[in-house]
Amino acid sequence: MKFAFTPEQEQFRSELTGFLRGEGLPRDERGDGFDQAFSKRMSAHGYVGAAWPREFGGRGLGPIEQMIYTEEMILHDAPRGYHFTAERQVGPSLIRHGTDAQKREWLPRIVNADVSFALGLSEPGAGSDLAAAATRAQRDGDEYVVNGQKIWTSNGHLCDAIWLVVRTDPDAPKHRGISCLMVDLKSPGITIRPLYDLTGEHHFNEVFFEDVRVPVDRRVGEENRGWYILAEHLDFERSGIERLVDLDRLFQRVMAAAGEVAARGQLSDPLRWRLAELKVGLEVGRLLCFRTAYLQSVGKVPNYEASMAKVYGTEWSQRMMAVAMQMIGLDGAAHEDGTLAQSIATGYRGAVSRTIAGGTSEIQRNIVANRGLGLPRS
Ligand SMILES: Cc1cc2nc3c(=O)[nH]c(=O)nc-3n(C[C@H](O)[C@H](O)[C@H](O)COP(=O)(O)OP(=O)(O)OC[C@H]3O[C@@H](n4cnc5c(N)ncnc54)[C@H](O)[C@@H]3O)c2cc1C
Question: Which residues are catalytic?
Fold first, then answer.
């Protein structure tokens, strides 16, 4: 069977790559891909929200084009941190569940790259079991008063707003007492503290809420029905091709390391076979990602298919980085001087979090087992 993009999709890819090459991509000084000025340039050329329907400021492109877009952004190392979450998750949720007033206010701000969103889902006692979220939002007239704590909030220190999962009815069964709020991160009562990951970088945070007042019109969807919005939200997140495409860049580094091993005459047959397997795995993973986009393009909501792509891509990346570490050796991992070995060692440590972020491998496997294979819940 041959998989191919349509001429229109190829045309879209070449238009986008032309734009990205012509833009003189900015240096990602902080390494977080967070650059509002660049997002605004993308917006001016109609790329932010391009996959949204035209009536909401998009170009009505389909899910396959959206994946091509993500793929090229990553392959070109284009900063997308500023608009990414708002474009991929917040906007589509607003389009489906927001009021007309919310759509009028927020969608243009997202498309124009005037607002960036962090995701406030996880809490110290609610990660995989998101329905256990305890951050409380109590109604007081036309405001909510929010108290509680979120954790692992990526880019929370850089974003303007946070998509916040809160408990609005503590007495209801846990899936039925949850709501989603959009909260300005500059609101009085919010404290953001940095957390450092295994690579020593600060990209995620703890966010504390103390009597934070949020207007009721910042709630998306009905009160206490937030769980259903979230379930869709997570499907948008899991189907992202970034799981695999950025691995292509890591794979290029692995091949560069293999070149060094070969130059020393040490590229054994078993190592060659491992590299060949990794390359095959990379292509399979990419197809799994495009399969989720294909399903969306024919009107289906991928869930276990997206979980398959996520487990496969993230676990494959850990295998790949383990092979790379074998090649550079443990002493290579000690380098801190901008060498290939250092970037591989950082990639190896960074790969650990991939099977956790966006839902752990165990949770994804449960989804595949229940919804894909129809097995009973344990
Ligand atoms: C790089 C990174 C970025 C992140 N960014 C964000 C962000 O921006 N916003 C945000 O809200 N969160 C973010 N997270 C948090 C992430 O969503 C959670 O870490 C993840 O959902 C797991 O939750 P947890 O850490 O509480 O682990 P837990 O849920 O406590 O899980 C601990 C272990 O138990 C296993 N486990 C739990 N339940 C089950 C089950 N039912 N069956 C089998 N095994 C189970 C898990 O697989 C895991 O191995 C980020 C995490 C990482 C690593």
Answer: 237
